[in-house]
Amino acid sequence: MRVISRVIFCFLCLTIPMLGQGNRLWVLSSNGEMKQYDPATFTAKQTVKVPAEAAQSPQNISVNHLGEILFVPSVSLPLSEEDVTSAKKAWFWNGHAATTIDQGLKRESAATGSNQAVTETAPAAYLSAAGGHLFWFANRARRLEREELDLSITTTWQAWRASETGSTHEDLATVRIPECACPTGTCEESCPAGEVWVPEGGVTDFFLMTQTVAAKTGPAYKASARVHQDAGKWTADPLPEPLQRVLDAVSTGNLIVEAVPDTSCCG
After folding, report:
1. What are the residue boundaries of the structural domains of the chain, listed by start?
2. In 10 A of CB 13, how many CB atoms?
3. pLDDT digits (tens, 9 = 90+) for 53-92
């Protein structure tokens, strides 16, 4: 019995626990199956087969307390050629059946004098805690290039809510980041883009956005906003200081727990 207990413990450690909200505990195994267990008895209740790509990238899988499962492939700007040509799709399980959703990656290019203007969009979806729809966030970046070197970039960060099938669309927030020069020839090293944080179990009535510069020596945090719903209307309120590593947030984002990474010589 002691050996069996050790095997079960090791199995749970090596697999990925996916959000034990309420009376649900989800475990992702290496064969691409997600099993729901009763956390009181560890009895298997149901099994969902996820795409092979999802099994290889468990950090991109999320589950809400309703048992909805979402897998979204990781994509960042600038888009690679593989991103543009692969027609990446998000995978969504509504508790009964699975469907795929076009992720909506776009790249457009046009000549502007002696420069080339490249406009790219990379949306990412997140679960709603209440179910019934998905939340989408995207940076839309217009980059001026010359001889494959970046000159400047203008980024617009957008948030919207859509039905699970994409038949409805509701804009929630838009943040226009001022035009930024790219002195090193690579905009990601000096110019910010929007990064979102949502609660682990899906978006309730708020989410957080931080303008972050990737930079060579580590991310730099420029500004943050709390986007929240009040009386059916979504409002973006700037925060006094940029958030760095959000650990948790509650009460419509009025209470936020964050960690400040140690960037000194000792790590």
Report:
1. 1-49, 50-259
2. 9
3. 998 999 999 999 999 999 999 999 999 988 988 888 999 9
Burial of 255 (0-12, 13-18, 19+ CB in 10 A): exposed
Entry pTM: 0.86
Tokens of 176: 């226009």
- DSSP codes of every residue in 26-78: EEE-TTSEEEEEETTTTEEEEEEEPPHHHHH-GGGEEE-TT--EEE-----SS
Kindly state the tokens that stand for 105.
């990656």
Residue 124 reports pLDDT greater than 80: yes
- DSSP code of residue 159: E
Name the more confident of 165 and 184. Answer: 184
Q: b/e per residue, 16-55, with b = 16+ CB within 10 A?
A: bebbebeebbbbbeeeeebbbbeeeeeeeeeebebbeebb
Which residue type is seen at 93? W
Residue 84's pLDDT is what?
A: 87
